[in-house]
Each structure stands twice: as structure tokens, then as C-alpha cells.
TrEMBL record:
Claim: Cytoplasm is one of the keywords in the record: no
Transmembrane domains' residue ranges: 238-256
Top-level lineage group: Eukaryota
Source taxonomy: Eukaryota, Metazoa, Ecdysozoa, Arthropoda, Hexapoda
Keywords from the UniProt entry: Membrane, Transmembrane, Transmembrane helix
Protein name: Ubiquitin-conjugating enzyme E2 J1-like
Location of the UBC core domain: 12-159
Annotated InterPro entries: Ub_conjugating_enzyme (IPR050113), UBC (IPR000608), UBQ-conjugating_enzyme/RWD (IPR016135)
Coiled coil: none
Amino acid sequence: MSFEGKYNAKSPAVKRLMREAKELHDATDEYYAYPLEENLFEWHFTVQGPPSTDFEGGIYHGKILLPPEYPMKPPNIILLTPNGRFEIKKKICLSISGHHPETWQPSWSIRTALLALIAFMPTPGNGTVGSLDYSPIERQQLSKKSLNWYCDSCGKIADLLSYNKVKKPITEEEQHMLNTISLKGDVSISQDMPYLSNADIVEENELRHRNNINNLNAENEPEILNPPIEVISYSKDFLWSLLIAILIFAIILLLIRRLFLL
Ligand SMILES: [Zn+2]
């Protein structure tokens, strides 16, 4: 597919997405993702359920919506295949865990997002927005059913992954990213009241725990914590709205005073 000429090739988002589309061009047996023919900012993906879990053997399909500011802002993931862990047709946000849960690292990519999604499937939902806590039997049944699931744009999803055991091993850097990444439902209130939304990261400890078993380097992770870009811009927005609210309040107060004086 060719996007040349259709998008501004100088836009960082376009450049980056074209590069990622090239890198992800070949399906692996774990995941496959590609932009829609008509929209570079909407991708469809397919992931294999992680082995030795209730999702083993399952194939799950979904959409990735990229914001115009990508990679400065994170992608949104939407699962479409019923799976028993994430609600379908709902945005799942990727964010960093720890002290700045709202931040996303521009060095992360669609591949990182998919790896994080796979890693998160077996973790407990703990009632987080967008999470489901179906029983193991229900999840196993859904994983079997998923093989017959069709996407209107992509066809039978069971045919989309490579079965040649094509693997791209997780690099040390990616392992670090996975240690710090967390997933949560899209709390729509967070757009308007961002200062309320830092609380509901429940899943990070579980993932970290799982990763610590495989990776003894986890204690190095603070090195890759960048400044919390999202948090800064959120608090700026908040200050602006506060200032405007004060101004409006002052004007109303003056009007009322005037009315009473007349
Ligand atoms: Zn599709």
C-alpha cells in the first residue's frame, strides 16, 4: 500500500507511522498489524493469546487509533474479538506505571503496545475500567471461538498470523519498556478532569511481578523515565481553565453588583 502523496511526509507522525508500517510488514506468529488502506492513522492488529494461559490458542483482533501527535501521544487500542479480559469496542490506554501513570514514551511503538497487550492479557482485571474478570473456563471457550472470528476489513483472523514460527525476540530495551508500561481503560472523564485520573493504575504491580521473574534488570527502570510530558500539558490546561473560570466569575459578580446598584 502506498501513502506517498496522500499525507504530509514531513509530519513526524506520518514519517514515524510509515517506518513502523515497514518494520511490521511481515506477520509473526505472535502479532501482525498494518494501517488501513485509506487511513494511516487507523491500524488493525491480530495477536495470539499468550501460551500457558487461558488465552492459549486464541487469536484476537482489534484496532489501533493513532492520535495526530503520535508518537508524542499514545495510541489507543480497541479489542474487537471477545476475550474475557478486556471489554470489546472500548479504548484501552497504554501508559507508564510508577509515579507518572499518564506518560507515554515516544520511543515506544505499535509493536511495544502489542507486546504490552499480550503481556497484560493474563493479569487480573481488578475492576479497572475496560477490564473483565471472566472465569478461566469462559476465557478458554472464547479463545476457541476466536478462531472463527471475522473482521469486516481483514477477513478470518485465524489466517492472518504467520505459522512459520517467525519470531522477533524481545530486546532488552523492550523488556525495560514492558516493565514500566501499564494498560488501563479509557476514562473519558480524564479528558476534562485530568488531575483526577492518576489513581486507577492497579495492574502495574502484577505485570512488574511477572516480569521480575524473567528479568533481573528491573531495578534499572527509573533510568528510562522521561519527564512527564502529558502531566505538564494537562496541568497547563487545568491552569488555563481555572483562570478563565475566575474571569467569568468576576464578570458575573460585577454585573450583579451593577444590577443591584441601579
Ligand atoms: Zn480487521
